[in-house]
Amino acid sequence: MSHFLIRFSSIVSNGATVKSILHQKRIFVGIRLMSPTKGLQSLTRYDQSTDWQRKLTPEQYVVTREKGTEVVFFEKKKNHNEVGMDHCVCCDSPLFSSEVKYDPGTGWPSYYEAHGTWEKDERTEIICKHCDAHLGQVFDDGPVPTGQRFCINSVALNFKPREK
């Protein structure tokens, strides 16, 4: 089962709002159906017992909770060659294996495959399936075998080496 959702991202124009678009039709998001009848609050899970600003660094909070983007090449500080799994920094769900990580020269950590299965339509936002943390985007310009590039903010990840 996939450990994150891919949310369709689009530019809203001609005075339309996200709310008006949601009320026009149902939107399939990965494997979870978002119903327009539940309103915009249904788009994000919020656990009142979790104070994200206390749990996360300021950089992690801006990226994962406010959908920011980290400074390019921030990953260089965390570069490693260990085998293991990158987990969501918010909820610790496993997301990407280091074995599918590659360097496309963009300045952000990239992977050609995600942990689990998923569906996508166009340019998409990648969010954690368990806590809705913003992770990055996926593009169709990646290497074989998938042709996809999961471009991820490194502050949204927590690497755990594989146990020997």
Automatic annotation (TrEMBL):
A single GO BP term for this record reads: response to oxidative stress
Which keywords does the record carry?
Answer: Metal-binding, Oxidoreductase, Zinc
* Zinc listed as a keyword: yes
Q: What is its EC number?
A: 1.8.4.12
Reaction it catalyzes: L-methionyl-[protein] + [thioredoxin]-disulfide + H2O = L-methionyl-(R)-S-oxide-[protein] + [thioredoxin]-dithiol; [thioredoxin]-disulfide + L-methionine + H2O = L-methionine (R)-S-oxide + [thioredoxin]-dithiol
**Which InterPro entries does the record associate with it?**
Met_Sox_Rdtase_MsrB (IPR028427), Met_Sox_Rdtase_MsrB_dom (IPR002579), Mss4-like_sf (IPR011057)
Record text on cofactor binding: Binds 1 zinc ion per subunit.
The record's GO CC annotations read: cytoplasm
The MsrB domain extends over 49-162
Pfam families xref list: SelR
| Cofactor(s) listed in the protein's UniProt record | Zn(2+)
Q: Which SUPFAM superfamilies match?
A: Mss4-like
What is stated as this protein's family in its record? Belongs to the MsrB Met sulfoxide reductase family.
Q: Say what the protein does.
A: Methionine-sulfoxide reductase that specifically reduces methionine (R)-sulfoxide back to methionine. While in many cases methionine oxidation is the result of random oxidation following oxidative stress, methionine oxidation is also a post-translational modification that takes place on specific residues.
Q: What is this protein called?
A: Peptide-methionine (R)-S-oxide reductase
What organism is recorded for this protein? Answer: Cyprinus carpio carpio
